[in-house]
Write a structure and sequence with these properties.
alpha/beta, D-Maltodextrin-Binding Protein, domain 2
């Protein structure tokens, strides 16, 4: 039997088969990578979720804010931008104009009427076991003043004209004495930041000030050199904690996902660490009636002094 010499084409067939198999494998890997990567890039093409923050949280900790935004991005599957503004009014304007989707605001602007309504309650922080906080009236630690009445004729620092703890509550104390800020104090000013109100009182730029208890207690942990120079002379009844709201018109799926993400922060290690930094227990679902205490004092002020009708109208 004669053996026929293998042709050059035949000799190259195994190499070509192997090369063909390798090529198919590479194409398969590329195809799988395409399916895996595409959703990530697709998410990046959507506009970012914009989340407004004000003085209701100590915003000086920029590293924490970066960590929180990254956490929200991982959970939401898309870019999240934290939008910082100085006043509650600025954040409310951004909500009403559609320029932000969510915001952590104060209970006072939340209960005010809007036509048409532009926001809805999303979730409420839980602080020291309850979704509640107080207004503190503070004075310099060395001050002889003992109660709110002693501040008559003094210089006073308000936090924000749309703040419950930093304006509405002390206003209600004046109204109870048939006074207004103009008649009760010698001079007033707004800091537009609870932490700066504490600073102003600690450095005796003001004889007294009104602040959010959560912010004062937060500073007592992280900046005790400031709070140690102040003293609390009046503590309000408890109020519904400053809520997180969503703008009406945001995709319902996005709203539900943000609500779940925030309320499940206590269920994973990273979320728990962020809550610890915020000095909060959790976020939870609560009824709008939680804010009836703020509504009551706003209505009382408006009844006694009609000039403050804009408080709830």
């Amino acid at each position: 039997m004669r053996c026929r010499p293998m042709s050059l084409d035949e000799a190259s067939r195994p190499t070509r088969i192997i090369a063909s198999a390798e090529g198919a494998k590479v194409r398969l890997i590329c195809l799988l990578l395409l399916f895996w990567i595409t959703p990530i890039y697709a998410a990046d093409t959507r506009p970012p979720i914009r989340f407004g923050l004000t003085a209701v949280v100590v915003t000086e900790n920029l590293r924490f804010l970066d960590q929180w935004s990254q956490y929200l991005e991982r959970k939401m599957g898309r870019k999240v931008e934290l939008v910082l503004r100085k006043s509650y009014r600025e954040v409310m304007d951004l909500l009403e104009s559609g320029n932000i989707d969510f915001a952590w605001i104060c209970g006072f602007p939340y209960i005010q009427s809007r036509e048409p309504e532009s926001i809805q309650l999303l979730t409420v922080p839980v602080y020291r076991g309850a979704p509640r906080y107080h207004s503190y009236i503070i004075v310099p630690e060395s001050s002889p003043l003992k109660n709110f009445g002693d501040l008559k004729g003094k210089i006073f620092a308000f936090s924000d004209p749309d703040s419950n703890s930093g304006f509405l509550y002390p206003l209600s104390l004046m109204v109870a004495q048939d006074e207004t800020p103009e008649t009760f104090f010698r001079q007033t000013f707004f800091t537009f930041n609870h932490a700066e109100t504490v600073q102003a009182v600690s450095e005796q730029f003001a004889d007294g000030g009104a602040v959010d208890s959560y912010i004062w207690e937060y500073l007592a942990v992280f900046r005790p050199e400031i709070t140690e120079k102040t003293r609390i002379i009046n503590k309000s009844p408890s109020f519904g904690f400053p809520p997180i709201v969503s703008r009406l018109g945001v995709n319902p799926n996005t709203v539900n996902m943000m609500k779940t993400t925030l309320e499940d922060m206590d269920k994973d290690v990273t979320g728990q660490a962020l809550l610890t930094q915020l000095k909060l227990d959790d976020f939870g679902s609560y009824s709008d009636s939680l804010f009836n205490g703020i509504r009551a004092i706003a209505n009382k002020v408006k009844t006694v002094h009609p000039s403050y009708s804009a408080l709830t109208d």
